[in-house]
């Protein structure tokens, strides 16, 4: 959890907090999507995470992807901006958030993909017609929009 969220939680407890997240739909040369299995929820999601105070969307995206995958991404393109009911979440500890998500599509990257990190137990590429289950409920919309081949940018 970043310092901003820890500070806010110390003041507001479990009350709803607005967050901004950036995630990457990383495609390999075969057009498959990279997903990571979360350790805390045992579900599949995109690499990405929450913006820190003063960061740009691109800085957040590059930092989070590198932290979670060891990949350096190049030329991200806007895939979608997601808000509304899909951003309402409550974590097992009672923390509530409303998350706005900025999702980017990436087809160029380099580095050696790590399998396990602080938040994930594995990373794998999946074709559009063979996505793993369960998908992270807060990210299923982005992943399914990609699988359906919707035209970007998507604004919801």
From TrEMBL:
Cofactor dependency: Mg(2+)
Keywords: Hydrolase
One Pfam family cited in the UniProt record for this chain: NUDIX
SUPFAM superfamilies given in the database record: Nudix (SSF55811)
Domain of life of the native organism: Bacteria
Ranges of residues in domain Nudix hydrolase: 15-148
InterPro entries per UniProt: NUDIX_hydrolase-like_dom_sf (IPR015797), NUDIX_hydrolase_CS (IPR020084), NUDIX_hydrolase_dom (IPR000086)
PROSITE patterns named among the record's database cross-references: NUDIX, NUDIX_BOX
Stored PANTHER family: 8-OXO-DGTP DIPHOSPHATASE-RELATED (PTHR43046:SF2), GDP-MANNOSE MANNOSYL HYDROLASE (PTHR43046)
Protein name: DNA mismatch repair protein MutT
Source organism of this protein record: Brevibacillus reuszeri
């Amino acid at each position: 959890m970043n310092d901003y969220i820890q500070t806010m939680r110390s003041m507001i407890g479990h009350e709803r907090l607005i967050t901004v997240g950036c995630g990457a739909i990383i495609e390999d040369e075969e057009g498959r999507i990279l997903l990571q299995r979360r350790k805390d929820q045992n579900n599949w999601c995109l690499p990405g995470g929450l913006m820190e105070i003063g960061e740009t969307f691109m800085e957040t995206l590059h930092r989070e992807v590198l932290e979670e995958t060891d990949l350096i991404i190049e030329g991200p393109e806007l895939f979608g901006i997601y808000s509304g009911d899909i951003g309402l979440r409550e974590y097992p500890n009672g923390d509530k958030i409303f998350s706005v998500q900025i999702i980017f599509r990436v087809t160029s990257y380099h580095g050696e993909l790590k399998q396990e990190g602080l938040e994930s137990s594995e990373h794998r590429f999946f074709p559009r017609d063979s996505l793993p289950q369960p998908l992270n409920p807060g990210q299923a919309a982005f992943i399914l929009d990609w699988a359906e081949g919707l035209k970007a940018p998507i604004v919801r």
